[in-house]
Design brief:
CATH superfamily of the largest domain: ABC transporter type 1, transmembrane domain
Shape: elongated
CATH architecture of the largest domain: Up-down Bundle
Low-confidence stretches: 1-29
Helix content: 55-70%
Number of strands: 16
Structural class: alpha/beta
Number of domains: 3
Amino acid sequence: MSEVKKQGPNMAPGPRGPRGGGPGFRSVEKPKDIKKTLRRLLNYMKDYRLQLVIVFVALILSSLAGVAGTYFLKPIINGLVAFVGQDSPDLSGFIRTLLIMGIIYAVGAAATFLYNRLMLNVSTGTMRKIRVDMFRHMQSLPIKYYDTHTHGELMSRFTNDTDTLREILSRGLPHLVTSAVTLIGVFVMMLVISPLLTALIVIMLFIMLYAVRKIGGKSASFFIRQQRDLGEVNGYIEEMIVGQKVVKVFSREEKIIEDFEKLNEKLRKSGSGAHTFAGILMPIMANLSYVNYALTASIGAAMAISGYLDIGSIASFLQYTRTFSRPITEMSQQFNTLLAALAGAERIFEMMDAPPEVDEGSVTLVNAEIATDGTISESDRKTGKWAWKRVKPDGSVSYVRLRGDVRFENVVFGYEESKTVLNNVSFYAKPGQKIALVGSTGAGKTTITNLINRFYDVQSGRILYDGIDVREIKKDDLRRSLAMVLQDTHLFTGTVRDNIRYGRLDATDEEVERAAKIANADFFISHLPQGYDTMLTGDGANLSQGQRQLLAIARAAVADPPVLILDEATSSIDTRTEALIQSGMDKLMEGKTVFVIAHRLSTVRNADAIMVIENGEIIERGDHDFLIEQRGKYYQLYTGMFELE
């Protein structure tokens, strides 16, 4: 495990112990700035302005069609009453009214279909743009960001939060608008029919709003807890799936089941509370509406008997009464969902607002032509030789040949300002030298390689690469001149050939196979079902750990850079396999500057220089024979007087 993980800020214990939060963890709070979040969402939807205008018009038509259709009950019922006692009633007006009512409902149905279809297009298109921006921004974030955020937490941005946001855009917002328009339309029509009965409705409305506020508030708090607990459960499941081998090795099945049951019980309680109060709200609102309906019917009947209202008006008003409470309930429920979605959107935008990796470098890496007199010129074709290109303020250009000379000068660095990992470290690696870094875990070995790559920048001192401060070199160009083989190998979904070619995308099939032979991976690859075209999935789960590491070495070989960093590159390879690839590794390292981090000291005996690092300082340097003669720390480590951890 690298010092990044052990000493970086990621090790601060999370709310549920060292595991930290899982997916959805930070969505427990309500949105901090609703207006700002809504503005950003609307900005993503600006390409759909015409469709949104059509959606808004369709929403209005759909809502008003329902309101207007209900009003037509009045003339229809009054017309039927007028027909009582007539032998040959004229039905033309009655039929005309029915046709108009049918047309209104048909328009409403068409408008409903239209806004649903368009909002589906708007929501999926908007979420596509957000996901693309999220993924693109993720590629620009520094390694430190990933060291301080769990994988589950980042994944929740793409799953829980985006799904909630998509749902509110496609369904929630339209329902809010239709509910609001319906509520206003119904209220206006009730005023037109009977202001007195409307006053009764207003009184009942305040009672309903009080119930919504009390019960809805309880429901919202439990839904927030449920979102948090769901995130913790998802994060724990993901963590245990990834670590199943470790769980089984140490027979911790019962322990993790016990921990999971505790987390699951928390989720059950918060989920029960959330849905209990959400479930209570509808029956209470329904019963209040029934009370309201009964009172309205009783008073309306009295008014009809007294001649203040006709039968048709009472029928229409009663129908409005039945529909009046529904928009209020829907708006209260959608409002809670909207808050949850906006909280998720804030989490998404929080990640998108994280500062990207800063790159102020101006020196670039170019293909070079080198004349017999040493003059360097830039080439537009691959020459196998490289140079650093620097453009001076006056527009002139200078070139420095890429040789792989790396020097640390009084470097001080810490992942946290209060905790220094490297203390005034100085050393050099001449072109073609093999430098071995040995020492206990946490001594600072991997930190040195992280600084060469500029995964982090030094607090003081400087690192020179062919005499150029690495901070002056563009990060992409700097990293193209390096290749790393890490202890933790990662393979991508694709063929074996694709995974090796990842080191250099323009490598030919012949170059890929030659790199595999250098790493001695060709033998096992040729015995795979489809050879180099065998598909790898699940991080190469169908390969052994040693085979995965051989592919990582082949990936570095095909890149063929002047500087190699091997961080425990052979740790997962058995002694026999290590002996087989050693000759290939020697070919790979020939003429290159190589940094090797190794716990197996037998692998570094032939290094040009071995540096022993202790507590962030280089305490010994020399070749194997020299350090053995000194009988110091290296001697103690090599002879087993002290064990490397």
